[in-house]
Design a protein that fits this description.
Strand content: under 5%
CATH class: Mainly Alpha
CATH topology: A middle domain of Talin 1
InterPro entries: Alkaline_pH_Ca-Antiporter (IPR052946), NaCa_Exmemb (IPR004837)
Number of helices: 12
GO molecular function: potassium:proton antiporter activity; sodium:proton antiporter activity
Main location: membrane
Membrane topology: Multi-pass membrane protein
Order of helices and strands: HHHHEHHHHHHHEH
CATH architecture: Up-down Bundle
Keywords: Membrane, Transmembrane, Transmembrane helix
Largest sheet: 2 strands, antiparallel
Helix content: over 70%
Structural class: mainly alpha
Length: about 375
């Protein structure tokens, strides 16, 4: 008999999830601030997708180590911090033309998370497991916080009169920034300290699911390595999105879409890691984890972005228009009502998933054809 040759597993340094973030960072360094022809833009886009997939992998490793809801919090905050850096960078380089970029990106993030990620997660979970269950207390608290943040930061500027146009006066902007930080901090303390059990995955009978796919958690060293690679991957994702932004703006203009649609594309790119991670959790019957990602990302997107942008206005020359238009206010209101009706029962079917995906499709369509 021919002796069997056992293949040794690849060292961690040679796996694609380790190599791709490093490669993406190298591509970012080589392409930053340069004009890219069409072929190179396509190659950068391929590397960008690879970095997104690697980020999802490392986020899952960290989440498995620290458990819920800390894992969802790590990914949401990490992505949002780098998203803020991207928005500020584009606003500094764009001048008055980017006065609505923060509003467009943050509102797009809210609609994508509260309709896209939420709807897709419910639909995927319901298609595989029938009726899916989650904790209505924790999810309801998250939805209430997201709604309050959105109204304070995006709706009120449309109706205030201290400054002309849909914008805050400096004092109003400072108040909104402080209120956003307080609300976000209060929610994080509730989620991770006082009522952590409200945000743990639940079974159909209401019991808490504690067996994470019967797999042993990774070692502390592996989790720290994945945390570092997650940061590298997210930096590369947002940096490459910035590199691709001229191509995105040119494509939006060539298609005849409004310039505000650039914010939608940026939000879609930045939220891609969370979307994939939430979909995978839903298919594993961990819908609560998906909801933690959806509402946590929306909350972080507002609660961290608005204070950072408020601080950045110290050296930004152009105006900062945060107030939503009438169509956007209506979409936000319908989204909140639909989300409340979805959350209150603590259970959902594929119908609720389709409803939220229809709202996302309406948002995208109206962003293209206002």
């Amino acid at each position: 008999m021919t002796p069997q040759v056992r293949r040794r597993p690849l060292p961690a340094a040679l796996t694609w999830t380790t190599a791709v973030p490093v490669l993406a960072l190298l591509v970012l360094a080589l392409t930053w601030g340069r004009y890219l022809p069409a072929v190179l833009s396509v190659l950068v886009a391929v590397v960008l997708v690879g970095a997104v997939l690697a980020a999802v992998h490392h986020a899952e490793v960290v989440a498995h180590r620290v458990g819920e809801p800390y894992g969802s919090l790590v990914l949401a905050v990490a992505v949002t911090i780098i998203e803020v850096a991207l928005i500020v960078t584009l606003m500094i380089s764009g001048g008055d033309d980017t006065a609505t970029l923060a509003r467009d990106t943050v509102f797009a993030a809210v609609m994508i998370t509260c309709n896209g990620i939420l709807g897709l997660s419910i639909l995927l979970g319901a298609l595989r497991h029938g009726t899916v269950s989650f904790n209505a207390e924790g999810t309801g608290a998250a939805l209430a916080t997201v709604t309050t943040l959105a109204v304070l930061s995006l709706v009120l500027p449309t109706f205030t009169t201290a400054a002309s146009g849909p914008q805050f006066s400096p004092g109003q902007l400072a108040f909104a920034a402080v209120a956003s930080l307080v609300l976000y901090g209060a929610f994080v303390l509730t989620q991770t300290v006082r009522h952590r059990d409200f945000f743990l995955p639940v079974a159909a009978d209401g019991g808490v699911l504690t067996d994470d796919d019967h797999a042993d958690p990774p070692s502390a060293r592996a989790a720290l390595t994945s945390l570092g690679l997650l940061v590298v991957a997210l930096v590369a994702v947002v940096g490459l999105a910035k590199v691709e932004s001229p191509a995105i703006e040119a494509a939006v203009a060539a298609a005849g879409f409004p310039q505000s649609f650039v914010g939608v594309v940026i939000a879609l790119l930045v939220l891609l890691p969370e979307s994939i991670a939430a979909a995978k959790s839903a298919r594993r019957n961990r819908l609560q984890t998906s909801l933690n990602l959806a509402f946590g990302s929306a909350m972080a997107s507002i609660g961290l972005t608005i204070p950072a942008i408020a601080l950045a206005t110290i050296w930004l020359d152009g105006p900062l228009l945060l107030g939503l238009g009438s169509t956007q206010v209506v979409l936000l209101g319908v989204t909140v009502v639909a989300a409340v009706l979805t959350v209150v029962p603590g259970r959902a079917t594929r119908l609720q998933g389709v409803v939220h995906l229809a709202l996302l499709a309406s948002f995208v369509f109206l962003a293209v054809n206002p």
